[in-house]
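Sample pair:
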Amino acid sequence: MQQPFRSSVAEFTPLGLDVHNRKPTWEAWSRLFEAAVDLDTASPWAVGDAYILGEEAFGEDAAQAIVANRLSPKRAQRVVRVSRFWKLEPERKHRNFRREVSFSHHEAVTGLAMDGDAGFSLACQLLDQAESDAGMSSEDLEEIVRKHRGEEEPGGGEEGEPVQFTVGSLVARLERYHRTGDRILADTPPEYAEERGLLTEALDRVSDCLNSVKNRAVGGDPAVLEERAA
């Protein structure tokens, strides 16, 4: 991974941060966290590591960096949750994350791993299986977890680290996202008019994105894309 900058606080690695100074200044840590957010898609582990470092050094004040970097609080919460569970708690060293398995694979089984000893054991088995089978995607793990929990349909629209991009998979995810939003809108009472309006606008943007993706497919072959005219 290309270094975004050199810092005395930590270095970026494909597995997150190699921390050199656990008591950085606010300025040095803020620059590090900003760089981690810029690399979020390539290395969510770095975002989690950087935030946890800031939390250790500055407590609740670290949350200011989430707003300053326009990082979704929900996204930050999910990334930190996964990083904290799999990479910390040294007294539970068997929890250590699998170095050959992506962040999204770990994210797919984190909730299950928190469901007591049985859930944790199954989550570890799934990660071991993903580590030995390069063809097993995070979506495959999500499906196994859903079936284990008796869930019929995924939550939809969750961000994650893509394993392999295809137009078909993107369309399916956007459609699933839109269906979930429609259900939320239907369940939101009329007195939440402002929130309903915001959600409606968001769903309209999802529809625009979905149509844009479909229009980029050339000759019916989703593997071939062309740039839309400006």
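The first strand starts at residue 10 and ends at 13.
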